[in-house]
Amino acid sequence: MKNELDISIVVPIYNEEDSIIPMYEVVRKVGQSIDLKYELIFVDDGSKDQSFDRLRALHQTDSHVKVVRFRKNYGQTAAMNAGFRAARGNVVISMDGDLQNDPSDIPRLLAKLHEGYDVVCGWRKNRKDKLISRKIPSRIANWLIGKITGVSIHDNGCSLKAYRRKFIKRVSLYSELHRFIPAMSTLAGDRITEIVVTHHARQFGASKYGISRAWRVFLDLFLIKMLTGFAARPSLWFGLISLIVMMIGTEVLMIALMGQPGVISFTVAFLFFVLSGHFLMMGVLGEMIVHSGTYRPSRMIVVN
Fold first, then answer.
1. FRET label pair with 143: which of 34, 38, 152, 165, CA 20 to 30 Å apart?
2. Are residues 12 and 73 in the same domain?
3. CA atoms within 13 A on the CB side of 2
4. At which of 229, 249, 276 does a domain end?
């Protein structure tokens, strides 16, 4: 990659006009203190206030500032993904644009990354958010993510993370998957850790997220479990579902035989058996795709 830099800082922005200048000033001071070549990539996620005008003014006065603009709001994951794709730094750091993450933690993230890790996650141990609508749902979600994926991170939702570019460039993000990056990294055998970071109360604007997004987290968690647990052997995933469906069909058939046999009971049992075979064939098809395609799960680390 031409014109490589040391660090790329990616910041999604959505209606954060009052936070932009204070955040820029803090990041600029941090960038000067660490004496590394850096760039600050703001991704305007279709803001409807004056956010883009302020970002454009910063870009015109400071060559470190890069701006990506979406025509409409696509969500935080899409904004982060665009920033990652535009990043030229050997290390990519993501953070929120509402000043709740502290850019002063960046040197600590870098120091931890240089200990040999591929991903360093921030942990908002003393989180300055509302208890009912933010803290409790977050704790439940983090506990579920850890149990289901096997990746024990205290705070998957914290945007303040540091990645090696070679890793984050190959991660495909969509939906709400940015919070599952640590779990997804297990597919490539990346080394993950976390450090406690500073978290501030929101100073400007209002939060863009609430408890209503919980159902999307659960759906994405189902997808991540399938990817992390059964990506190499999809027949196991679909075979498990097939077995459960077949057991239900067998139970329906036994009830029909022991009671009053009827067309409806036998039809329901037959449909369950057909569905079981369908899932089994999907597993076989998945195996064929995996072994005839380019997917190869990482099982070793090469030391140069």
1. 165
2. yes
3. 0
4. 229
